[in-house]
Here is the input.
Amino acid sequence: MPQMTLEPRACPICGTHDGGTEFAKANVNLDQLDPFAFASRKLPEYMHFRLMECQNCDLIYSDPAPQPADLAQLYRDAAFDSGVEAHYASRTYGRFLPAIVRRLPDRATALDIGTGDGGFLQELLDAGFTRVAGIEPSTAPIQAAAPAIRPLIIQDIFRPDSFEPESLSLITCFQTIEHLADPLSFCRNAWQTLKPGGALFLIGHNRRALSAKVLGFKSPIFDIEHMQLFSPSSLRQLLQTAGFQTVDLQTVLNRYPARYWARLFPAPRMLKPRLISMLQTSGLGRCVIPLPAGNLAAIAYKAPLLTPSR
Ligand SMILES: [Zn+2]
Here is the structure.
């Protein structure tokens, strides 16, 4: 059972303690958690800490929440079982790259934070970046990385002092911003590390998406790992507060095999493994189906260097 101490937490965007109203009471049962609870893609448990909704920011956030050091330990030891799904996710997110790359100052350096088995690093190389690196705190996905990709992955969390200020052209970070104890510091650090005109490309859950509304508290976005849940307006506010000049928001059409979608749909826990194994043995589970899974892409650009006008 994970060891955790909870501590009070203010809104991670605006920092107010009293701007929030209770959105949901905690329903955590620590005895039911297994090592897969802190892997990024797994059977959802529908558990969460007490959730507050900030009226200033339109953000839902955990308060109280685990201490950052406890979270870091949990992620380091998390199990990993989703190489195939991670591959499909990388392809989905790679579709955004051509339009982003056209606006960047250059294609010199790209960093993928929370890179898992580094599947997206290949997409970055294919998009023409010269120097590519990934950061991943958990041991298991790095061991699962392709031999050619593994040397590009640093086992760590993102530390701004590991990189020269204004040295990176693009930073990508997928399905991770919800997990961070301090997402605003993270975005500020990313901003400092980016060159003028560089971009931070985030993908996260949209709590205002149709799928989240339909599923309610059975939505996989309500998860013990998620320290906050963004809407389009709260994600824009986060990135603008961190210093980014322009923020493009887009809906993500996720392309996954049917067997992966089956894992996410709410079904009795006894029934779900049978459904998944049926899809796997019949071959139907391999069909790739594009669906809006309630994910939001944000591409935030740092102001370019001003060129003197004539
Ligand atoms: Zn707030």
The chain has one domain: 6-257+293-301. The mean pLDDT is 86.
